[in-house]
Every structure is written in structure tokens, then in C-alpha cells.
Design goal:
single chain, 39% helix
Amino acid sequence: MKTISVAHSPDADDIFMYYAIKFGWVGAKDAKFENIAADIETLNQATLKGEYDICAISFALYPFIKDDYALLKTAVSFGEGYGPKLIKKIGTKLKRNFKVALSGEFTTNALLFKIAYPNARITYMNFLDIEKAVLDGTVDAGVLIHESILTYNNELEVEKEMWDIWVELSGGALPLPLGGMCLRRSIPLHSAIDYENTLIKAVEVANKNRKVLAPMLLEKGLIRVDAQTLDKYLDLYANDNSVNMSEIQYKALDKLYELGYKNGFYENLIKSQDFLIPNEYEELRAR
């Protein structure tokens, strides 16, 4: 059997959505999946270099890799009234050119932040280091992602919700696109369809068996947070809306790419559904 590399972040929702495969509950027809965990910007950079067959990415990265990777319909994370948070020390006032820590150049929160705060001085660091950097004064503010949005230090306060920035920029009524997955285009189409269907099934099985899977992940020390925080976090980012992208999610992605294009971050305006794996190919083969 072929070995297919699947890279994902170590945050709770990605671990949760993948581990139905890791535990053998779901599998591909002709391949063995080998998983790698790394922070999201490391994965973004790795995808730019074409390192993995299947990889979790920030949605904002996708226009830069569209020629080499297809966009997958599953294992997606969108915010609905919530998302990353711009935080600072309690009581401080940010100057126009405040220094801010972001989790990576190609993250979705970085794209939205740059549009909203064009005069801020940006430094990039691992998302796990951002909270400390704000507390010790290395930066004036930072954008927290993943589980940190629920567990940050009580000496910090929210300056701005990225959700609010998204609503202001997009006009509202759309979920906030954060992260998804992509698949190398050089993979034969029939295999690509099988791999995507396997991932869809894995997310579906994980969601349906959450009460079994979540404690297993906690017991094995695979999750950075406690059971209560994990439950709350999965409610936000690994749910029924993560299984298979919907029409409103595609519209949200298209709005993100429109904003990036209009503000000079992308060379071309793309439509997300033009870059999906054509699943209808299997139906045509069967006729």
C-alpha cells in the first residue's frame, strides 16, 4: 500500500478530526495515512514547498498554492460569532503603530489584521509564544488562536475580536473562514477522491463518537487542555459544519479571497468551488 502523508496542526480540533483514522476506525482503500503534527504556519510554509500529500492550511494561504493543491471539502474550521482574538495587557492603550505578534504570515487572521490595521508593526512567532510575549512586553498586543482564545491569562483583555473585524469587512451574514485542508494535484484523481472521502468519513465518525473519542485523546495526553475546555473548543471548531463544506461556507471563502484581492494581497481573484476535487468523475466512470 502507498503511504500518504497527512499533516495537521496539534490543536484540539485537528487532532480530534484526524484520530478516527489513527485509531483504525476509518481507512482509505489503497493507502496508509501517516500523520505529522506541526503549528499552522509551519504547515503553510511546508505546503508552499510541496512537502506533504495532504495538509491542513490557513484558508488565506490557498490562492498561493491553488496550482499545486486542490482544496478539500472537509476538516474545515469556521467561526460563527467567535474566532481569534487581538489581546493586550489590561488598561493599556494601543498606539496607531503598535507592535503586534501574529501566528504566521499566511494565516487567515494575519490577512484580516493587515487589512484592518495597516500601520501596525508585525512580528511573527509560534502561536504558543504569543501570550507570553504580550505579558512580558515584547509586543504591545497579539492575536491568539486555537485553544488560547479560551484560556488566556487574566492580566490580558480583548482589544478586538477578529470576528468583529470580519463582520465589518465582509458585511456580515457569513461565517469566518479559518482553516481547511488541501491535497496534492499530482495524486491520481480516483485516489484523490478516495482520500477525500476517507477524511470526510473520519470527521463524521469523530463527531458522532465524540463522547468516546474525546476521553481517549485526553487519556493519551494528545490534547493540551482539560476535558471541559476541550468540550467547549470542539463545540466551536469540530462540529457538524466541519464535515462537508456548505454553500454559505463557500460564499465566505469567496468573500475572504475577494477582500485579499481588493487589498492587494492576491494577484488573481478566485472562486473556491473552482478548485475542489471533481467527485463526479467517479460517477462517470461507473456508467
